[in-house]
Amino acid sequence: MSFSPSTPAALPPEGEPGRVFIGDVTTEAGAVIPDVTVEFERWGRLNDDCSNVILLEHALTGDAHASGPSDEYHPTAGWWNGMIGSARALDTDEYCIICTNVIGGCRGTTGPSSPHPDDGKPWGSRFPAISVRDTVTVEHLALQELGISRLQAVIGGSLGGARALEWSLMHPDFVGKALVMCVGARASAWQIGIQSAQIQFIESDPDWHGGDYYDRGVTPTRGLGFARRVAHLTYRGELEMDDRFGAAAQPGENPLGAMRTEDRFQVESYLDHQAKKLAQRFDAGSYVVLTDTLNRHNIGRDRGGLNEALHSSTVPTMIAGVDTDILYPFHQQEHLARNLGNCMGLEKIESAVGHDGFLTEFERVDSIVRNFLARDVS
Amino acid sequence: MSFSPSTPAALPPEGEPGRVFIGDVTTEAGAVIPDVTVEFERWGRLNDDCSNVILLEHALTGDAHASGPSDEYHPTAGWWNGMIGSARALDTDEYCIICTNVIGGCRGTTGPSSPHPDDGKPWGSRFPAISVRDTVTVEHLALQELGISRLQAVIGGSLGGARALEWSLMHPDFVGKALVMCVGARASAWQIGIQSAQIQFIESDPDWHGGDYYDRGVTPTRGLGFARRVAHLTYRGELEMDDRFGAAAQPGENPLGAMRTEDRFQVESYLDHQAKKLAQRFDAGSYVVLTDTLNRHNIGRDRGGLNEALHSSTVPTMIAGVDTDILYPFHQQEHLARNLGNCMGLEKIESAVGHDGFLTEFERVDSIVRNFLARDVS
């Protein structure tokens, strides 16, 4: 379902995809992306003065489908199912929840697999690099196009947390408050290292074709699978994984035989499954663009450094993190909380799950979101 | 320099490679490896009753060269330089230190790049899988061949720690005491996941040729490089890496440009360098065999489970680990110390360096080794 710029505030039915067209976008690094489309979903009624909006920011391979079942259009169930609805933490009786698909993605918003306006062929290698700030610029334009000029709150984890944090710094007058989860003030060297390795796996796949594989009938599935396996190991705590799989063999396979074979441990089968699932639902070009986006995350850039940027923040911001996160270790959230100009508090999620805890630890995150929204910050 | 089985206790000059021939070895899983050679180095004089030997166990890509400069024969300087010598922690005035190259390796001991006795061509895919117990079996035979029937101590970290631990369980009467560093009682699911991914990178390289690339004039350098980049990120603490590289660009390159290019962050250049260095000095076939060895590490196998195996241990064993190790997290060393039948104590190495701390935190490790050796356990 699409909406033209002439019908501001025309929202799609609850949980169905809508689109806004925001025209040309110039990136932080100076590239121009013409005719940008932004896909979004919404839950809850937009009130008359458009003042009850909460913006949800998804993570790397997420999309606008934060809530609802999987169906023909949605390859996955909502990534925050159970959080959104009447009397839920994100209460649709009170708020209008909007979740936009990030620019560079592959679920409706313009990205490398989208048709280029010049020739209708996929952007591919022509698609520019996207910074976290660019993702906010695009959302800011999209919300304005929808007639929304103020957010009650912005909420996100991981890449979504980086986006929420940049929202609070780029548009402090637009954002009532921010909940920033499982991220740091900038990409760390370790993150850049592991993320760049993933990009390299994809770009080294012979089926990548320099990013222009779309019309060749091939996809760099192997490279994307390599990336996902490694990424998944950074998303999941080793305690939780060991609890589930230990050193058990995959049923019917013997990874302890006299010769090395393709027989697997259970955890290998699990990672193979994760790799296969992602390749079925996610574009490798988007994976490269958005992984590079994570590498570029640095709120200190052109703001006098990390701590000066954090000190300058005026938006009431709550920080949350998981104690076993190895990708964005908890000390990064402590750093944010210690230095933010207007920090509402720091919530530690005790969980064996690691980074993905903001998606899986439902009861704890539910309570964090409720407390965050209930707090009077006026 | 080689030594025939007929000259037991004939040791090479200090710090020069020696070899022993131990004949056929049957692996834990039932494969037979004929005509096994074991390369070793030694420092300090073997006393008349061969009772002053300390066995050093190297890690995955280490070798017998624990001490000394790099030279024509040794691609790297000793991996524990400074620890071995007169009045050093491993005091050559008192002890005869022996370090053997592990079976499956590529620095003198029989491995996949060694000539197969049948045809003189590299073993390649014919080389069987090696368990940690197999590495101990081979060393046990090699030491006996040298006339040594008792060790003052066995010491190792990482794969070397796994080997030291198995020594204490397989041959308790042979081992005076054991210092086991930076390892757990078995491979965790997370370790198996990240290690299997590395194997997959190499085995998917078109230059791998099923493990039989040796005579084709190619080496699976790209796959080995992928493996090393990821492995290195598990060896190094993210605090230390961030301290060194942060989000800085490699001089002369701009990873923040408008389009994605091959311009790198400094940490990428560092990882590229690590990958290149390893490919120059280490055989991909050995990397696969020994990474699989790490996957097979499980002291509970056929011993009634982990804790029963640990409880049964009689060898006085000291455990050490690094607080920031993400590959073998410190709780794994706590688990060892808590359950070992005869634990001498648990040493926590506080370091930003992560897993590699047992190689880099010289003063702390020096003190641990001195205390370990000074303790009377008779």
TrEMBL record, chains A, B:
<feature type="active site">
    <location>
        <position position="325"/>
    </location>
</feature>
<comment type="subunit">
    <text>Homodimer.</text>
</comment>
<comment type="pathway">
    <text>Amino-acid biosynthesis; L-methionine biosynthesis via de novo pathway; O-acetyl-L-homoserine from L-homoserine: step 1/1.</text>
</comment>
<dbReference type="GO" id="GO:0009086">
    <property type="term" value="P:methionine biosynthetic process"/>
</dbReference>
<dbReference type="GO" id="GO:0005737">
    <property type="term" value="C:cytoplasm"/>
</dbReference>
<comment type="function">
    <text>Transfers an acetyl group from acetyl-CoA to L-homoserine, forming acetyl-L-homoserine.</text>
</comment>
<protein>
    <recommendedName>
        <fullName>Homoserine O-acetyltransferase</fullName>
        <ecNumber>2.3.1.31</ecNumber>
    </recommendedName>
</protein>
<dbReference type="GO" id="GO:0009092">
    <property type="term" value="P:homoserine metabolic process"/>
</dbReference>
<keyword id="KW-0808">Transferase</keyword>
<comment type="similarity">
    <text>Belongs to the AB hydrolase superfamily. MetX family.</text>
</comment>
<feature type="domain" description="AB hydrolase-1">
    <location>
        <begin position="53"/>
        <end position="361"/>
    </location>
</feature>
<keyword id="KW-0028">Amino-acid biosynthesis</keyword>
<feature type="binding site">
    <location>
        <position position="356"/>
    </location>
    <ligand>
        <name>substrate</name>
    </ligand>
</feature>
<feature type="binding site">
    <location>
        <position position="228"/>
    </location>
    <ligand>
        <name>substrate</name>
    </ligand>
</feature>
<keyword id="KW-0963">Cytoplasm</keyword>
<keyword id="KW-0486">Methionine biosynthesis</keyword>
<keyword id="KW-0012">Acyltransferase</keyword>
<dbReference type="GO" id="GO:0004414">
    <property type="term" value="F:homoserine O-acetyltransferase activity"/>
</dbReference>
<feature type="active site">
    <location>
        <position position="355"/>
    </location>
</feature>
<dbReference type="InterPro" id="IPR008220">
    <property type="entry name" value="HAT_MetX-like"/>
</dbReference>
<dbReference type="InterPro" id="IPR000073">
    <property type="entry name" value="AB_hydrolase_1"/>
</dbReference>
<feature type="active site" description="Nucleophile">
    <location>
        <position position="158"/>
    </location>
</feature>
<dbReference type="InterPro" id="IPR029058">
    <property type="entry name" value="AB_hydrolase_fold"/>
</dbReference>
<dbReference type="Pfam" id="PF00561">
    <property type="entry name" value="Abhydrolase_1"/>
</dbReference>
